[in-house]
DNA sequence: CATGAATGAGATTTCATTCAT
DNA sequence: AATGAATGAAATCTCATTCAT
């Protein structure tokens, strides 16, 4: 942060790698594969290549470490999802195709490694850190719903969707996408072939458009 | 069996009969409020009113205890859900009303104490016990989807729904119900007023019927 | 003990197998393969085919069980050894051959399954049950030494060995036999080929006779 | 390292240096008086003046602790025995006296506190750690036998013993020494008076020399 | 700032032993 | 006499966290 401007200095001759970032990355990785309780600080420190007290110096305690690691991952996942939703800003002539494309991209994000780990950790710790979970939920699902609602509102105003409550429409579109995927991937334990993912996206959009498409 | 008829005679000089059930109940309660790792067998034993080794005598180890407690809870939740789905066997004249009624009942089950705890534990341990989770998932969500698909197939044949893939329709109806509820209850951390629950059910059914209702 | 006179009724149509004997046998077997502390009463009961409390009914506690099991095994081993020593009662013309034969037989006993297990258990528990160990030691090694000393005294009187302290001679003969065997069998962990065992016996007797043989 | 020079400064604010050695010493002491299974790490930690996890930090687990403690004790005992055997390098004119002196010294070592404890532990755990026991056996008995054989070979070459297999001679001399001592000390449970120890040594050497002394 | 070493607390599990039938 | 069920006690080991350098 001091010298280099690239926060994760790709291949740049990074002078001092940010230990803090290394710790957070390692923490998310370890939390993801072990869960919160089973993850031990020693393993995180090893994965980050630092000594245990260094972790405590930077992030005070295990809980804080978890909160920061989760927060960072949530931001990343959300950015990816919003990027996918942006696609709807320029729907082109074929709305159905644009929706399907957007939907498929979002599903890809949701099925990705990071999003799956984040979802598991989120659910797993909803009892232990309800406030954190709520924050994450709002910064991810909530934020995505809003972005989607914005797009749908524009489309409705433009007459390309029938008049509707855009928040509700967005909520239902998301549900039609993620619900079946969770079921088919068995909560993320089995990989879903790309073709099936695409089929889920298309079925969701078809149903959505029958319900929300412009009236004949 | 001879003298005492109290099935759970607290401190009665005979404690042979339903110790196992008491342990399983206590286990689910403790797992539900502490999570798998934080739950300790001592607490479960205390809650069940038995000594710690008794727990081990009956259920071998913590993992086995967890599996049985989860399995039992899953069966209970499923039975409740199937009972709600049965409502669709006699839809009466007003299909929309019947669907909304069924939907609302299922949401009530899903938002109940036990179902919420089961959902949390399921997600939380999907990394640790993938096989168990898969089983639970199939015995609950999967089974419910099938039951629902059966009903929808009948309705479709009867011309009260347009021709469709009943499995897909059931999957999407379930998604339209549970997805929004998860979002609004913040993964189950906040109570959703009955009115809002009903609204979710109605919106889901309305959307569903626009997509799957009989063609004009 | 009541009806049948065969204490371990070989193939006889044993009316009531002696549970007590079955327990003692099982106990020795389990103690032998697990050691005293690692042997658990449950396993002994299983091996004996009875329930755990039955073991306690018959033998009061684990310590008592151990004492009786060890005692019985010691008696058996001792009987075998004494039988071998008896051979010296009729030495025949060739004393050297008679001694070698006796020595070899005793080594066979000492290397047998039971004697080895007994030796291990004895040493292992010498700290925990010093009195028992002392008893066993006297009933086995001590008793054998005396028997041997008797034979050697006769031989000495008969002029077939030079005048000597027969107790000391017996002690040293035993030492020349068992010491090298313990070393070569690595305390009983590796099998010693019969040829090597015989060589040990012969070397012991040769040395013994050079020291105690009749003066030229 | 800067302020305190006391190598084991009891409660000094620095305890970094010889904790490991203190733990190993304490471990051998506790194992010696309790046996492997009955020794508990808590007691070892207390005896060493450290906290329980410190024991685990330094030696990983109870088994490893045992192996190291035994190994160290074996080395010490062996060094003492080899020092005694060295005596034979300068036998002087009176071979018999030199042998008796050496023999007595070795018996003193063998009857010492540490050697007795080592022997008990060795036998007791021969079932549980056969590889360790074998190692110990070779590093002690085996090594001593070789050293002794070397001395005897020299003496034989010098004509002070008759031509013989020195390994066998050493083996038998050791047996003549330790065998009777084990019997008389009842496996180490009772103290043998110095006079009796000396008598055993002399008897062993006398017998040995009659068998292996120079031919008249 | 980074670290090696140390520790207090607590979890799972096993075992010998005893009731009550 | 024999047993299924229950229990008090204890042991191994792990972890989050803190000194002192």
From TrEMBL, chains A, B, C, D:
What keywords sit in the KW lines?
Answer: DNA-binding
User: The HTH tetR-type domain covers which part of the protein?
Assistant: 17-77
Annotated SUPFAM superfamilies: Homeodomain-like, Tetracyclin repressor-like, C-terminal domain
- The domain of life for this entry's organism is Bacteria
**Record's InterPro entries?**
Homeodomain-like_sf, HTH-type_TetR-like_transc_reg, HTH_TetR, Tet_transcr_reg_TetR-rel_C_sf, TetR_C_Proteobacteria
What PROSITE patterns does its record include? Answer: HTH_TETR_2
- Glycoprotein: present as a keyword of the record? no
PANTHER family this protein is in? HTH-TYPE TRANSCRIPTIONAL DUAL REGULATOR CECR (PTHR30055:SF146), HTH-TYPE TRANSCRIPTIONAL REGULATOR RUTR (PTHR30055)
Q: What is this protein called?
A: TetR/AcrR family transcriptional regulator
Question: What organism is this sequence from?
Answer: Streptomyces cinereospinus
């Amino acid at each position: 942060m001091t010298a280099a401007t690239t926060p994760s200095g790709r291949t740049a001759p990074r002078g001092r790698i940010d230990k803090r970032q290394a710790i957070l990355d390692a923490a998310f990785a370890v939390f993801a594969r072990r869960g919160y309780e089973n993850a031990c600080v020693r393993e995180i420190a090893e994965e980050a290549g630092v000594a245990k007290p260094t972790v405590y110096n930077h992030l005070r305690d295990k809980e804080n470490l978890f909160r920061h690691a989760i927060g960072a991952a949530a931001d990343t996942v959300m950015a990816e999802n919003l990027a996918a939703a942006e696609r709807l800003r320029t729907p082109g002539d074929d709305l159905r195709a644009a929706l399907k494309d957007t939907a498929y991209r979002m599903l890809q994000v949701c099925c990705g490694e990071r999003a799956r780990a984040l979802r598991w950790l989120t659910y797993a710790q909803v009892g232990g850190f309800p406030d954190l979970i709520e924050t994450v939920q709002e910064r991810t699902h909530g934020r995505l719903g809003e972005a989607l609602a914005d797009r749908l509102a524009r489309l409705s105003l433009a007459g390309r969707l029938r008049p509707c409550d855009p928040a509700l429409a967005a909520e239902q579109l998301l549900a039609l996408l993620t619900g079946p995927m969770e079921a088919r991937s068995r909560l993320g334990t089995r990989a879903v072939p790309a073709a099936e993912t695409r089929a889920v996206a298309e079925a969701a959009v078809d149903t959505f458009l029958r319900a929300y498409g412009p009236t004949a």
